[in-house]
Methionine ABC transporter ATP-binding protein
Amino acid sequence: MSISDDLSPSGAAAGQGAAIRFEAVSKSYSKPGGGRFDALSEVSLDVTPGTITGIIGRSGAGKSTLLRMVNGLEVPSSGRVIVAGHDVGAARGGALRAIRRDVGMIFQHFNLLASRTVRDNIALPLEVAGVPKAQIKPRVAELIERVGLGVQADRYPAELSGGQKQRVGIARALATNPKVLLSDEATSALDPETTQTVLQLLRDINRDLGLTVLLITHEMAVVRDIASHVAVIDGGRIVEAGETYDVFVRPQHPTTRSFLSGVTGVTLPDFVASRLHETAGSEEVIRVTFAGQHATDPMLALLGRDLGISVNILAGAVEEISGRPFGNLLVSLPAQRGAEARAYLERHNLTTEVLGYVG
Ligand SMILES: Nc1ncnc2c1ncn2[C@@H]1O[C@H](COP(=O)(O)OP(=O)(O)OP(=O)(O)O)[C@@H](O)[C@H]1O
């Protein structure tokens, strides 16, 4: 059942166009010793229908609080969360239940019932929704097929691997045909290989069902691998948001940069990192980011040819984000020519960032 079948029209005009809209959402909690603590401050974000959108932040940044507002598990202290045109915080009773049917959720620790088989875990939301038994059976079989658990259908959670448990979680979340799937660190407890298979399943579901996926994570690699859009949250505020590719290529905020330094290739070799300092030295160490068609351009060779500046390559990688090439190089060059070299590279649409100095 869709939300609109069940809800009063009062909120219907709100949040048009966005699958989920956060409108100046704040949340504060009482502190044990008195006073208030702001877990979220004035968060505004539109999640485009059909996208996979990642919210990334450190522990305590407010990710879970934000996610849990989408299905009404948390209520904003001020502001509104609009899902498919309806104000979640204002919904009660049948209206809130309808929203929850339209918003599936998967969890880091799977949250399966140990006493129920795979089949019966997946059936649970349908039972709760009052779906007739005769309809539950074929629906569960279809879901088991979709997540590739045919062999395990009659096993209990304790007999499954982490990846299989998460597949059950995904099937259960899809049972009521939601429009939105929330993912709360769904791959954080899984090894890298299993993570990739679960991310692939989420991608397939997003593509095949046109479902909007909103995921929270503290790993930029997850965002890179799956999300078309990303919002970076820091201290309860969104500090940067946009298409993943743009945020990777032109990160604006230091928090975004620090998340990116773990994934975009390229960590400084130890022998350079240990000598790096902030005050001027004879060699400047810079990060050069290449995007789109420039990823394969021999810009550093041109720098030598046009300006006579020779560059040492310290580390580098070219990868693909949202199907587009993206390269990242760490180089050192003579510090007295640094500004000139960076201006040249920027003129050729590369992005540069000074990391420090050696010598
Ligand atoms: N019920 C609550 N009462 C008081 N403080 C809370 C409550 N829930 C969350 N907080 C606080 O709000 C802040 C944000 O918590 P939240 O769980 O949203 O962060 P998070 O980014 O999801 O972190 P993690 O990745 O560690 O789960 C934290 O400082 C947390 O301690």
Notes: The chain has a mean pLDDT of 90. Residues 307 and 340 are 9 Å apart (CA to CA).
